[in-house]
Write a structure and sequence with these properties.
By secondary structure, the protein is of the alpha+beta class. It has eight helices and 17 strands. The chain folds into two domains: 187 residues, Fructose-1,6-Bisphosphatase, Chain A, domain 1, CATH 3.30.540; 132 residues, D-Maltodextrin-Binding Protein, domain 2 (3-Layer(aba) Sandwich), CATH 3.40.190. The N and C termini lie far apart (45 Å). 46% of the residues are buried. The structure holds 1,6-di-O-phosphono-beta-D-fructofuranose and magnesium ion (2 copies). The site of one magnesium ion has 4 residues, from strand 5.
Length: 336
């Protein structure tokens, strides 16, 4: 497909090549696109519409919710619940799964999402995003939380919207990764980044260095070797970036390569926490996108998409990006 194609056209074209497709999937993706446009509009208007600051609430993980976390979550529900394409929703900002209200028909897909990722960046006007993933409903019964506990390899589609200097939507349905830019004048996402691929090699890494004393040994070894630069075993200098918005971080990696790490550390394991990022709303969808773009995504020793989820809000360590670097880090874990 060529530059200038609208996302609506693009999704319809992709669906045409799926045998037996009924149009439900296309319609659901279009509803998600609408939700992202609504969130983008709120994020862009920021303080003008009183959207900055915290809400008086916490999510299930004890994090204070931002007003925009709550608002974005509502927008996602509002745009997707009515159409008859979704069986149930699960979000980082809702304790339990969201049942489709009785007045609406129930559909055959499950939708998981992080309505606003990187939300600590809202008040300082730095990029934030939305992450989503689509799974199939297993049977005809009303979906329950357990139905969401599917390995990442089962995902039908995943994507993110990035609310940066321009708003972009990046999507995979398992046939590569494509990026679209929102043309605010016509209110449409236009294909601007066809077939996004991650360079296999890189000299750029991203990690929150304030946690370094808690890192597991293989990660410490990797970062130490990067920092040693030309004089170290890697024999080249590395650059470092940390935005604290996973969406922006993954987008940079899709654009020019790199490695992103939120690894396991002793502070989290002491609290019985499996990692920082959430498997169903962040790690799985991003892993699907990264792998479809030719990159790798692991917990350390294991491929993230092969994990069998144990609970809705489960957290996992995440190391993703340029394939050769991710393989190297995985090697350090097996050697450990
Ligand atoms: O504040 P830290 O430790 O740097 O963590 C930043 C990470 O946390 C996140 O913001 C978590 O996502 P939420 O903002 O959706 O909770 C990631 O986007 C980011 O990579
Ligand atoms: Mg997040
Ligand atoms: Mg969030």
């Amino acid at each position: 497909m060529h530059h200038g194609t609208t996302i609506t056209q693009f999704i319809a074209e992709e669906q045409r090549h799926i045998p037996g497709a009924t149009g439900d999937f296309t319609a659901l993706l279009n509803d998600i696109v609408t939700a992202c446009k609504m969130i983008s509009n709120q994020v862009n208007h920021g303080a003008l519409v009183g959207a900055l600051g915290s809400a008086d609430s916490e999510n299930i993980q004890g994090e204070t919710q931002k007003k925009l976390d709550v608002l974005s979550n509502q927008m996602f529900i509002q745009c997707t619940e009515w159409s008859g394409h979704v069986g149930a929703l699960a979000s980082e900002e809702m304790d339990d799964i969201y049942d489709i209200p009785a007045e609406y028909p129930r559909g055959k897909y499950l939708l998981t999402f992080d309505p606003l990722d990187g939300s600590s960046n809202i008040d300082v006007n730095v990029s934030v995003g939305t992450i989503f993933s689509i799974l199939r409903v297993a049977g005809n019964e009303k979906p329950i939380a357990n139905d969401f506990l599917q390995a990442g390899t089962q995902q039908v589609a995943a994507g993110y919207a990035l609310y940066g200097p321009s708003t972009m939507l990046v999507l995979t349905t398992g046939q590569g990764v494509n990026g679209f830019t929102l043309d605010q004048n016509i209110g449409e996402f236009i294909l601007t980044h066809p077939n996004m691929t991650i360079p296999a090699d890189t000299a750029e890494f991203a990690i929150n260095a304030s946690n370094s004393r808690f890192w597991e040994a293989p990660v410490k070894r990797y970062v130490d070797e990067c920092l040693a630069g030309k004089e170290g075993p890697r024999e080249k200098d590395f650059n470092m970036r940390w935005i604290a918005s996973m969406v922006a971080e993954v987008h940079r990696i899709l654009t020019r390569g790199g490695v992103f790490m939120y690894p396991m550390d002793s502070k989290m394991s002491a609290k019985g926490q499996g990692g920082k990022l959430r498997l169903l709303y962040e790690a799985n969808p991003m892993s699907f996108i990264v792998e479809q773009a030719g990159g790798g995504s692991i917990t350390g020793a294991q491929r993230i998409m092969e994990l069998q989820p144990e609970s809705l809000h489960q957290r996992v360590p995440v190391i993703l990006g340029s394939r050769n670097e991710v393989e190297r880090i995985q090697g350090y874990h097996s050697a450990d």
